């Protein structure tokens, strides 16, 4: 008995198998794309909120029997002790609201908020785009998604480092309007920073390892 061997057909089938190795079933692919869309919408909403933070500082909503109301309360941007001191009396809060209404202060609030929320919005954006590509039907979904996951991990590291900076700047920006007056402040929570930083580094290292493995697999396929 003679067994015919078609090398070209074998390589073609192997490439097709490797190409489709990371493809998802139709239902899971749809869920993945819809989840990515939700992340993108959240990123857009956070981006819009960041842009409007200087115009509408300290938004506050309250829902009760008579319905829901929405108001601006800039004192909500303060740390807990300073917020209690400002909200201790209506007169004190009015003075703080007048200070927060100054154009330069509003611009500063917008800038500090962008420093804090901007990287997080980019994390949501990159994750959303990665999920959309993982749910794709054509090409190599994993290879297309990994660069966006790597960018999301990098943004997570930047966000972890930038949070204490933005918190400190917000305190120094708003403190002149409080009863205690202006002050220098450095706000650092090592537990929060360390946790967020380790998660970002872990995600980046994981994506790097997967990309390295995928590259090695491609090199092997070309060699075969």
Structure, explained:
The chain has 224 residues and is mainly alpha-helical. It has one domain. 70% of the residues lie in helices and 5% in strands. It contains seven helices and two strands. A two-stranded antiparallel ribbon has the order 1-2. A hairpin with a 2-residue loop joins strand 1 and strand 2. Helix 6 packs antiparallel against helix 7. The longest helix is centred in the C-terminal third of the chain and has 34 residues. The two termini are 27 Å apart. The N terminus is likely disordered.
- Kindly give the count of domains: 1
Number of helices: 7
Mean pLDDT: 80
- Which structural class is indicated by helix and strand composition? mainly alpha
**What portion of the residues fall into strands of 2 or more residues?**
5-15%
Overall 3D shape: elongated
Distance between the termini: 27 Å
**Can you tell me the residue ranges where pLDDT is under 50 for at least 5 consecutive residues?**
1-20
Helicity range: over 70%
SSE run: HHEEHHHHH
Largest sheet: 2 strands, antiparallel
């Amino acid at each position: 008995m003679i067994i015919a061997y078609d090398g070209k057909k074998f390589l073609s089938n192997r490439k097709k198998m490797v190409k489709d190795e990371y493809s998802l079933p139709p239902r899971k692919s749809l869920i993945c794309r819809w989840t990515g869309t939700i992340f993108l919408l959240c990123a857009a909403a956070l981006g819009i909120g960041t842009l409007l933070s200087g115009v509408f500082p300290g938004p506050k909503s309250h829902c009760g029997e008579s319905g829901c109301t929405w108001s601006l309360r800039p004192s909500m941007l303060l740390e807990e002790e300073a917020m209690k001191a400002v909200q201790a009396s209506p007169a004190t809060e009015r003075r703080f609201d007048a200070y927060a209404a100054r154009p330069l202060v509003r611009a500063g609030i917008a800038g500090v908020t962008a420093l804090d929320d901007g990287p997080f919005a980019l994390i949501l954006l990159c994750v959303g785009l990665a999920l959309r590509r993982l749910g794709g039907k054509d090409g190599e979904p994993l290879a297309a998604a990994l660069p966006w996951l790597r960018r999301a991990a990098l943004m997570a590291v930047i966000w972890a480092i930038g949070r204490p900076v933005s918190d400190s700047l917000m305190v120094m920006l708003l403190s002149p309007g409080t009863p205690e007056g202006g002050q220098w402040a450095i706000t650092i929570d090592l537990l929060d920073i360390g946790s967020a930083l380790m998660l970002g580094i872990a995600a980046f290292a994981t994506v790097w390892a997967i990309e390295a493995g995928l590259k090695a697999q491609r090199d092997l396929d070309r060699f075969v």
